[in-house]
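Figure-free illustration: sequence to structure, shown twice.
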Amino acid sequence: MEIKEFVLGLQHIGLPAKSIEETIRFYGELGFEVAWQTENGKCAFLKLQNIVIETYEVGEHAAQCYGAIDHIAIDVSDVDRVYALAQEKGYPVVSNGLETLPFWENGVKFFTIEGPNKEKVEFNQYL
């Protein structure tokens, strides 16, 4: 099997923010709505039709330059199988293996690999 057989589409684009409030305001003016936000308000998923941006406040550590997108996340149907395939292919995993976060209704399970240009590619499955 190949990884592409498990791909459902683009899940989100990860964007570090100097100020989450400013980022939410800017994208809100473009038509994005907050689809989900952490209790502490420092991470939010903004949605406009089928486009999702995950933004999270990093303060002064935000790159603030062109190319500042942190990662792209690909929605997959079976993250465990995709992780096994990525390991078989020898892709450099830069996450702590398979991880989970309490995002959305039931959480998410994901892992991240490094691409040839030092970009991070996250494979993500809603639980």
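We now fold a second protein in the same way, so the two outputs can be compared directly.
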Amino acid sequence: MKRCDWAKSGNAAMKDYHDTVWGVPEYRDDYLFRKLILDINQAGLSWQTILNKSEAFDEAYANFVIEKVAAFDDKKVTELMNNAGIIRNRRKIEAAIQNANCVLAIQQEWGSFANYLWHFVAGKPVVSGFKTAIEVPATTALSDEITKDLKKRGFKFVGSTIIYAFLQATGIVNDHLTTCFRYEEIIEETMDKKS
């Protein structure tokens, strides 16, 4: 099976992530929030590092239940700073709490975090159709637009590169290479769900 270049050299967990999660359209708010926080924590690190720590992240961040993370206090921040299983970066930890509160505000306004995110693409995944990894950008006009709006809403640690990785991972953008076996599968799965 041909995979996207970034997944070819990864371990079994990376290949499984590529094959079953990455690029699949996601509409569950807790999962979208989880992926956003994991992508924020990836900044400056490899995705393999975050993937290896994902279970520890789930445990440390209350399975990314948005209301629970929004209620984290200074004592919890200290606890997380002492947790060797996750990325111990105070700015990233504080951003998770701030961003959880921002997601709650979006849910009040839009009904769900998913509704808000998917409105930027009129509810339909962007299919890039790149043939080679070198064509895949680090940012796009879409990630710039969403980043600007998130920052306006008070989100922290959300640059356009982080947001573009988030859009790719959650299937808002399908950036599987056209040579990858998942490219067509995801397009077909998305069409099947709509019909």
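Summary for the second example: The longest helix spans residues 90-110.
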